[in-house]
Amino acid sequence: MRSRIARHLWPVLEHEQRDAVDPRAAGVTVEPQVPPLELNGRDYAIFLLRLAAEVEHGLMVQYLFAAYSLGARDTPEDRRGDVRAWQETILGIAKEEMAHLVTVENLLTALSAPLNFNREEFPHTTPLYPFGFKLQPASLDSLATYICAESPEEWDIPEDEEQDIKDRAQVAAGAPINRVGLLYAELMRVLSDETAVSPDDFNDASRAFQASWHEWGRGYRQGERGREAMSSLPDLPAPELLIIEVGTRAQALNAIAEVGEQGEGLEPGTENESHFQRFLAIYRGMNELGDGVGVRRLATNPTTDLEGPDIGAPEDPNSTTPIVDEEAKLWAHLFNVRYRKLLVNLSHAFALSDDPSDRAALTPRGALIHRTFSEMYNLRAIAGLLVELPVNSADPYGPRAGPPFQIPHTLMLPQDEGGRWRMHRDILDAAAIVIERLTNEGAVDGQDYLAALAQADETERAQIELLIAGSALTASRNGAPPT
Amino acid sequence: MIQELRILPPLAIARFGAAPTPMDNYDAVVDPQRPLGYRDLRPAETFKVDAQSGEIVDTFVPTRVTFTEDGSVRPLAPFLEVWALTDGGELEQLTTALLDREGASVSDLRWRVQVANLKVFRRTNIEDDKVSADTGDFSGHERHTLRGECPNFLPGKTIPFGHVQYIKPNDARPEIRLRFTPAGGFVYGASRTLAPQGPLDRNVVDAVYDARPGRGTWLGYSDEDPGRPTTVPGGIYAQDPPASGISSGYLDDGCDGVVRLTLTVGGRELSAFGRVGAGPPTYAPDAVPIRTVADELEQALFGPSNKPDEATLERVEEIVRRAFETIRLMNTPAMNEQGNGMAGHDNGARRRFEPIMARSLVDEVALENLHESLLVALRSGTAPWFADVLRDYDEIGDLSDRGRRKMPALMRGADGRHLTLTRRQIDLIRTLARGPIFADENDTP
């Protein structure tokens, strides 16, 4: 268990939760203490929100991996439409998790708190995390895990089926699954408590820095999901991105309630199906089609690391899978660089404000938002190449490499704008090195993509040079030392 | 035996230019190493026509593409070819040899070109405001000026619409062709007196329209006068004072019309026709608009749906390329607002004063980069994922936030409403979007 999170969570856990994460606690009777010592109410809310950011981030990445695994050639001809719909549904849920993450960052911004775009790496357990992070192909096991994580307290399905799913999930995850709803319920409780978080703690002026649906929603209509199909598949409801700005306690509680409802809601019907309901429908479909049918044989927890503490025995389902095929490994590195670039763009966008009434005051925030989406497109593109490449060229028909989603060494933004743009430039330089190697060392597929990506990066780098120069000029005018 | 004749292309669009030498040919191609760059303009094989004889006297590839000559724009002057449907059901180009086989000669072909400019008539609905030119039948190879005449013109005044020339076949180029050379792209004015008084309006090269009392009404005409048949959009003519609705009385030398060809062989009369038109020069020749006349024609010919084998990523890539090429030419922050921007057209639902997109998102460079990144990702082979955001043909009046922000954004169609791609273009993208998002080819022996 990670100490920095666990030591604060420990006091608030119920006995069985403690026992689950640390058997040494068995038999120790200590009443939960909220907020935990060392934290006041506001700080505890921030702690929980930062944890929520990690959870949403982790779920998004795992769901993307699962979605990318769907669509294998063995899908029966007459079921391809179904499998494609499952894939689009999970991609839609991942988009909604992305929006949840952004809304949680808005909540942190509203509390004038440090943002959190980080998340834990491979197998780990943390209380209030729904389950150990695991990149794995879609299967009945993984779907059962997602269902439990997104489930409400009471399930409205046949008891036998409920028990089957819970049992399967527990075996797959190696521990009972924590509902995400527990975390949001705790947040709701803390943020409702005026003695814990005072009205003054909500900074309405921070909205200028927060993400808005108008900037991030991309047409995925707030409050109108399902009114008409907008997804690539005409009969499938489009995802609804809940990107909610927060300036008051009421808005904060509403945001948490909406995000929670989208995850675990029970309202039947196609228009407002929760993640729980959507995963349940896919689970039932796969159960009928056959476990793993239509799923690519992707490696579990693929990684560019060849050695490390997380690498277990090959038969350990929670171990990481080193990508040793040279081409696949280079693509995996490129994937990681673009993943970092996405997170840095996202984080940097939150550091800049825009006054929409004053065009002269516009910042590169809009450009960073567009760049964030551009990197989503790149992740999809590179994932598409990775799911075709073997993990190990010695086993050319063995498992395929999937997108590794490895967290970079840092996601902290430098203090000043010049430093931030230098960080962007560093990332582009790193990308250029990998692109050059892939180009020169003969990547079989993707050469057209690499040529275009290199040119796009070159253009962006030139723009960043201008921003670095502009930042230096602004800094010198303000009397700050040049960066 | 020739069964039927065809003029190909059936529609040729010329571009204005006042320079004496027509534009040379070029290809606009994408450099595979710089796929996001401007299209390269590569010189291509070009005919040189002798003005006097009408013969093609040289075929050459220019060393560079040059759009002007001594400060004037070189006109784009298309050739119309004649093709014959023969007994085998094959189309073959009509040549002197084929004519020989039919017992006919070059001079047995009779051409007639009729073109018109009905822009003033379209607004005033007065027959005497039609400007038209007719060459009558001809078989010779001299140039035939297209002299635009109009009952409401001042005595002796015409608007030159350019000329046509029946290309004289020779041993090197025995094919049958006609060339249409458009006008210079000038503006003509109106006069309230028989002889214009004082200097001409600086925008016009001649005063041709007779605006004396009892004659033409174009000078001073207003769309806003009661009883006018309105058009959508209205008011698209030069106005003085600006935005007053009152016509400045301007005409231009654009035209379109029909080219007819007749050949009598063995007692049978064969005929064909084609269409010509003239429009402004291209000032962004290395870019293609997101929706073109070619897209309309393709939809008219082949319908709004694509066959599965017609839906290729390359065609989607071309649409995306045209999207960022179009953005390069736009002032997107301005188009996002009222005034002359697209938001200003949203006069329903009281939305004209509201920007369409969040202002932080409409920086031209950032938008261009975003659209380029679509193309970058498509080149990996992934299926398009942006079908959701395309505006359908029946959503052009949707002034909700979601409706106004659909793609293509910040542009209007000819009806003044938000632009859409053709149904066929949208179907192409959606067809691919419905398919597998990644390939799946390599994991089994």
Provide the descriptors you would attach to this structure in a database record.
heterodimer, A: 483 residues, mainly alpha, two-stranded parallel ribbon, 52% helix, B: 445 residues, alpha+beta, 8 helices, 20 strands, 25% strand, globular
Overall description:
The complex is a heterodimer of chains A (483) and B (445). Chain A is mainly alpha-helical. Chain A has 14 helices and 2 strands; from the N terminus they run ααααααααααββαααα. Chain A has helices at 3-9, 15-21, 41-69, 80-110, 140-149, 159-173, 180-192, 213-216, 249-264, 275-289, 326-351, 365-386, 417-440, 447-477; strands at residues 302-303, 321-322. A two-stranded parallel sheet of chain A has the order 1-2. In chain A, helix 3 packs antiparallel against helix 4 and helix 3 packs antiparallel against helix 7 (180-192). Chain A is globular and about 65 Å long. Chain B has 8 helices and 20 strands. Chain B has helices at residues 96-101, 119-124, 293-302, 313-328, 332-335, 364-378, 401-404, 423-434; strands at 2-8, 11-15, 26-29, 40-43, 46-49, 56-60, 68-69, 72-73, 79-86, 91-93, 109-117, 131-134, 143-148, 159-167, 177-181, 187-191, 206-210, 251-252, 256-265, 268-279. In chain B, the strands form 6 sheets. In chain B, strands 1, 9, 10, 13, 14 and 15 form a 6-stranded antiparallel β-sheet that branches. Chain B has a 5-stranded mixed β-sheet with strand order 2-20-19-11-12. A 3-stranded mixed β-sheet of chain B has the order 17-16-18, with no helix packed on it. In chain B, strand 5 (46-49) and strand 6 form a beta hairpin. The radius of gyration of chain B is 25 Å and the shape is globular. The interface between A and B is large, with 63 and 52 residues.
